Amino acid sequence: MVEIFGTLGPACAQVDMLKKMFQEGMTGMRLNLSHGGLKESRQSICNFWEAARLAGVKPQLLIDMQGPEVRIGDLLVPLQLMESQEIELACQPSCGPKIPVSAQILGALEIGDRILLDDGKMELEVMSISKGQGALARVLRGGVLQKRKSLKAVGKQIEGPVITNQDKENIRLAKEYGVTALMQPFVTKGEQLIQVRKELLKNQLGHIRIFAKIENREGMKNIRDILPGADMVVIARGDLGNDMPLWKLPAAQRSISQICRKEGKPFLVVTQLLASMVQKPYPTRAEVSDIFHAVLDGAAAVMATNETAVGGYPAEVIKYLKKTAQEAAAFRGKEAF
Q1: What DSSP string runs through 113-164?
Q2: Given this model, what pLDDT does residue 132 score?
Q3: Cross-strand bridge partners of residue 233
Q4: 103/196: higher pLDDT
Q5: Residues 4 and 322: beta-carbon distance below 8 Å
Q6: How many CB atoms lie within 10 A of CB 297?
Q7: Residue 281, SS3?
């Protein structure tokens, strides 16, 4: 059976909605801990388990860790970035609008570098650098920047710690909240998963599955080194699509799928499977085709993110995800004969 995951968020955090989602075929949920912890999500998690009890299911609860993803710092208020505007990136807060970044990020930047913010929603180009003070960038693609959003310097590997202090705290609390799996972001080598497994074992959590998220070309290149430490590989098309021209992304997905199948490693496909359903109660033909072919290629699981976390039709999302995956799995079974 193909596992069907939603993402827990304000649009689906009530017991009645979660129960409907389970009844439509949801087998588990992802909780994004990039910006907070399990304690802050206590009520939503309690609602999740109560809905599962009422629906008579035993679901999976996945926590998506901070991991080595590079992020900007805290903003007092959201920052509106306008096309062609010049904006400073700086370590130290001061008067005027600035994007707070670490010294590690500033030290890696060079004139001409392109910077992607918030999973590529916004894009900057570095115009000048003041050593030890900051960098001046021009906005190529604007938007509203919120605190702690992701930052990627195109073509450069800037990494944070494999396990942050916040990650360690969430792992410590995982048993109390019923966590069954951990999603490790930006996995680029097998050693990272060994560190994660050691942290789990230290907390008597050897039963928790590790989902290794492949989110850049380095992770793809080292996929065979990563596979032994992963219980599930995640083809995370959001950041993976930021690391290459988008027209290369389908081939990247197919390549990872083929390697996982050959090595007998289950994999999950995620990101924008039903993106139009954030605002509409039905998907596009292209979206259901995308889900069908992901499962036909061997996906053991598919996952919705914003579609259930902040969208207007969480239960309908699960319905289309489940029924399309079922059709694909049935077709895949026929092809085997």
Answers
A1: -EEEETTTTEEEEEEEEETTTEEEEEEEE-EEEPTT-BEEETT------SS-
A2: 63
A3: 212, 267
A4: 196
A5: yes
A6: 19
A7: coil
